[in-house]
Amino acid sequence: MVVEHKSYARVGFLGNPSDVYFGRAMSFSLANFWASVQLRPSDQLLIQPHPTHDLVSFQSIHHLVHRLDTEGYYGGVRLLMAICKVFYKHCQEKNIELNKGNFTLSYDTNIPRQTGLSGSSAIVCAALNCLLDFYNVRHLIKVEIRPNLILNAEKELGIVAGLQDRVVQVYGGLVYMDFSRENMDKLGHGIYMPMDVNLLPPLFLIYAENPSDSGKVHSTVSQRWLDGDEFIISSMNEVAGLAEKGKTVLLEKNYKELVNIMNRNFDLRRQMFGDKALGALNIKMVEVARSVGAAAKFTGSGGAVVAFCPGGPSQVSLLESACKEAGFTLQKISVVPSFLSEEESKSLITY
Ligand SMILES: Nc1ncnc2c1ncn2[C@@H]1O[C@H](COP(=O)(O)OP(=O)(O)O)[C@@H](O)[C@H]1O
Ligand SMILES: O=C(O)[C@H]1O[C@H](OP(=O)(O)O)[C@H](O)[C@@H](O)[C@@H]1O
Ligand SMILES: [Mg+2]
Q1: Which residues form the GHMP kinase N-terminal domain (predicted)?
Q2: How far, in Å, from the CA of 181 to the mean position of ligand 3?
Q3: 10 touches ligand 1 (CB under 6 Å)
Q4: Does 109 contact ligand 1 (Cβ within 6 A)?
């Protein structure tokens, strides 16, 4: 029995990064890019390195150093190992029996690497889905809990990350999420509300080959937040509030106000993180979009931008030219509908 699962990239549409800090967020599953994981039964338990993403053979020392400078030390192998560990420990803790032989896990991805499109958790989410089916335990691990397991796999590796990406990668579609401390403490997870994807106006993705490490980007703000820095705490609360406002604005189809909310979301991130942490190229992507009057903000911690053109097709043409001139890739966003089964949707609040 070979099991294969696909998990899509995600766009943190509003409220990110407050999800890392007990805030609120609205995100959607992006059909343009995905990761896939395959599980095959085998005699040995093998985590297969990807031929390009886990490169260990180089043409020269120059090539090796260039690769480390541009893409860092790690690929997906550590993510696959970490989710195996987290899944196993969770099952042990919950007395879920895992009666099966060994397997080989392999992965592939076309999600631009480390561009804030959640390439990391797409690999982890697809692997978790393989494990759930291989061991036939999907019915024993609630849908609300699965994002926590995906996040814990990355936390295990010391990556600073939040839940918004993992939630939408498990649920699919458009989801509004409330991670308030009260809910997290009481329920052990946030409150996740699927929304109608048709409420979204046409959106565009701008990105560049410019990998940035979300853990590194978050580390200073994360420490300041832990230290009780008032500016970070109040700004993060405002960012969380934007997701909530955004929910109302989308339901009312008030797209004029959506422009202000998206722009404010990025401006607050910029004030909190500072230009050095965000990176000049990432900031330029937002500025290029804004130069034609589009609203723009990061999809994640940096590398890709979600843009909205309230002026319609003529403004989209201007955006196309501006991106081309700046050397950025522009794609029309396509959203993946919800993945939830009828059974899984029943317990959830929908809009
Ligand atoms: N496309 C990829 N292929 C292989 N591994 C990846 C890829 N993207 C991310 N990773 C792994 O996940 C880790 C964290 O990536 P992260 O900075 O969160 O990127 P992203 O914004 O894509 O989620 C990386 O250090 C690496 O180990
Ligand atoms: O900063 C953000 O918006 C997000 O950063 C991480 O996502 P990534 O795709 O790795 O950049 C993090 O996992 C999210 O929870 C944050 O919202
Ligand atoms: Mg990530």
Answers
A1: 90-173
A2: 22
A3: no
A4: yes
Q: Does 127 sit in the ligand 1 pocket, CB within 6 Å?
A: no
Query: How many whole angstroms separate alpha carbon 23 and alpha carbon 245?
Result: 13
Handedness of CA 175, 180, 181, 184 (dihedral sign): negative
Q: Predicted ipTM?
A: 0.95
Could you give the residue numbers annotated as active site?
165
Rounded distance between C-alpha atoms, residue 123 and residue 35, angstroms: 6
| The pLDDT of residue 216 | 74
pLDDT, tens digit (0-9, with 9 covering 90-100), for 204-237:
999 987 767 766 778 789 999 999 999 999 999 9
On the CB side of 109, how many CA atoms lie within 13 Å of its CA? Answer: 28
> What are the CA-CA distances from residue 179 to residues 24, 164, 212, 219, 327 (Å)?
6, 9, 25, 20, 37
Residue nearest to atom 3 of ligand 2 (CA): 300
Quote the DSSP letter at residue 112.
P
Strands 46-47 and 103-109: parallel
Specify the DSSP class assigned to residue 190. Answer: -
What is the pLDDT, as a whole number, of residue 211? 67
Q: Which two tokens stand for residue 326?
A: 């700046």
Cα of 309 vs its chain's centroid, Å: 23
Give the per-residue pLDDT at 350.
Answer: 59
pTM for the model: 0.93
